[in-house]
Amino acid sequence: MEEQKMHGFRAWLDYQLKHNDNFYRFFQTTVSFGMRVIGSFVPIDKKMILFSAHSRKYNDSPKTIYEYMVSKPEYAGYKYVWALEDPEHVELPGPAIKIKADTPKYFIISMMAKYWVTCVNIERHLHYKKKNQLYLNTWHGCSINHCGNAVPGRKDFDFTAVDFMCYESEYHKEILMRDFLAREGAMIPTGLPRNDALYHTSKEEILELKKKMGLPLDKKILMYAPTWRDSTDNGQTYAIKPPINVEYWQKELQDEYVMMLRTHAYTTKLLGIEFNDFIRDFTSYPSINDMFKVADVLISDYSSCIADFSILERPIICFAYDYEEYCRVRGLYLDMEKDMPSGVKRTEQEVIAQIKAMNYEEECKKTKEMIKERITDIGGHATEICVEKMFGKQ
Asked: DSSP label at 150?
């Protein structure tokens, strides 16, 4: 019960910090000062690395970097610490210590660790990093929708303290510098470590993954991954209700396709969908890269997974049923009518018609030319580059 109360309070606090500018400024100034005072009494451990990832889980690029490091004997002398939402129920390979995120212990460890590795924000929008700490931020995707300080009402992103910031293209670099205040000197052209595996796959691996995931070998695979929508109840829930009639999709497509559905990590409730053998729930599946590898077609809207999936040069359908409203409320960096390979599909009927009439090879070419070569043209060896930047050659 106490855990539920704490989670509810933190959800409320997160929402207020994002949507109440005066509250945010007071909170940031006051707490940052207090953290710097406390930090002055906390000595730095030169061998300690703090990892923190998306939704406070064991995932994303920090996971890739951690698993690379613990597989290499030259990094055996480091102390690895993972900050997690639910550390008691997460099993980690290797020697990492698990701590609960956003607790007093978490913040003390963050003052103690020489190295910070994250795809979000170690300081939780505060400012208390010491000059002799090193901070690597991979971020968690190349955005299509407005992000950081470009989001209406947001001015809380300040990555000036980041020492190394990954980017996937000049398009991505410009966004990080302008809308997150990342420094030019911190920018490193690596791509995202989590995406390295997408550059190195094979037909044999895809076949094994389909067997592992319980997917049919005689049908093509659709992946539907809608992005996160902001809360409409002051941060109590983050729900999404795609306008999908499952029976209609199944009737039209089941002879040739099955569909995997994955909601965004911050989405707390999916409405209006009942799963069956045709449409399958993969939201909790641990590896989104496995899903990308087996998917023949991606259906999404404004999600950065469009950028990730483009690495594979396969068809992408933009199902943006709330396009005009989303443009008005959130905003987009791209004109998706022109910049998406198949434009914008606003109804499920248009999406299904696009799937059934698709020239697969032509759509693959469009993905490569319109998305990959524009916004994800760097990558494949990000993990090794990031580790070398942070820790030097061992």
From this structure: G
